[in-house]
Every structure is written in structure tokens, then in C-alpha cells.
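Hi support team,

I submitted a single chain yesterday and got back a structure, but I'm not sure I'm reading the C-alpha cell output correctly. Could someone confirm the output below corresponds to the sequence I sent? I've pasted both exactly as they appear in my results page.

Thanks,
R.
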Amino acid sequence: MARTPNISLFKSPLLAGLVLSLMNACTEEIRPGSADQGEAMQGHIFDGRPASAAYASGQPLLKPTSGRHLLFNMKVALQQGLLLPAAFYTEANLAQFFGTSRAHTLLMSDINILIMLRGLSYVPVRDDALSSISVTRSLINSENHLSANGKIYAGIGVLCSCQLRIEDIEAVFGKIGMSVAEERVVADAPGHSFPALPHATDPMGNKRVGFEIATFGAYLSTLSVSFDPDGNVKEIDAKQWEQP
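Hi R., thanks for writing in. Yes, this is the structure output for that exact sequence:
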């Protein structure tokens, strides 16, 4: 079983606080997109072929127009190793791949990239919620430090109160190999207290599902999706890294 590396790029509380502040600053209100547009695009990209087939055939990845379309693009990236090359992280490519309107580059170097994205107007949300996407690419050595000689570790993080549910995840990633677990409350730390999770009102409430994605190269990919108490997606975490 593939194991996600234990990496903490922001061990400094000051740097971690700065990143969280910038993440909050880069979020914006999302307006529901056109349902008809989403239905049409869904029919175009879900034609019975695996996600890799569209990419391998040379068909360009279209700009997402629905939540499921965004999930489809993420699946292709995880299968095909698209998160590994530095060329993926241009603002133009990210805008096309994620369907976003703006990018905020926080870090950009040969060994460390962090970009925040916003402008997901096509993904319906609940209660005028805020959302953001972060994309990262870092070179990490065997001592868990940034290094030009390190292996590539990349990720996509989606924070949202999306009108996406387990049916949308299963429509793109399937059910085979999917793991389901209860969300865990962060243990209390000295001087800090974390409230218990609200009572679940849905079978998927306060659950997290995980996938180990089948890939086509010397790299590993995983996907994790967490749900709020009502069974709606609240966080999507995709990771990809070179094999040691």
C-alpha cells in the first residue's frame, strides 16, 4: 500500500500563520454556475472511457464548467503525473485546468512552488460560502528538507462548501478501492481547545473517503475527500510524488 510521505513544509508557526492568512485572503464568494451547462459538459467528458484515455488520445483537457468536470481533470492529473513537471504551474495552464479566474503566487522557485487560485464560479456552493484551491510542488530530500536533489512532492488542496456529494465522487473515481473512515477531531493541545464535530445528519456526514490512484509511471497518487455533517464535500486533498 502506498504511503504518503510525512512532510511538513511549514514548521515555523510564523510562516504557517502567513500562509493561512494568505489562503483566507485569496478566497472569494462563489456563485452557482449554469446547471444546463454543467449537464452538457458532463455528457461530453463522461463517455465511458477512463480518464486517461481522453488525455492519451491527445484530446485537450477542457476548462471545467461543473464540479464533476473539475474532478475529472484532477483524476487525469493524478493518473498521468501532470503535477510533477514545473511547466504545469504557469498561471495560464492553471486557469485552463481548474477553470479559475485569478492566481496568487506565494512561492515560486526551482524547489518550491505554492500558488493560490480563486474564481470557481461554475461550482455551486451553500450559504454564500468561500472557497480556494492551493497547488504545491516541492523537492524534498531523504531528511525531509527542501533540496535541489530531492524528489518531487506535489499536491492540490480544495477548500469549499461545495454542493458536491459522494455520488459525484463515485461518478468520477468509482467505488473500487475506496476507503471510508470517520473524521477525527484534532486532540486538544496546551492552551487550545477544539470542539467536537457536529452531529452527522447524513450517512456520509463527518466521513472521509480515500483512493490510491492507478498511475502510469514511477510516481504515486492519492485522493482524499472529507464531508461535512450534512454529507456535502468540504475538502479535497490530492497528492502526487515520485517513488523513492
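A quick pointer for reading it: The longest strand covers residues 130-140. Let us know if anything else looks off.

Best,
Support desk
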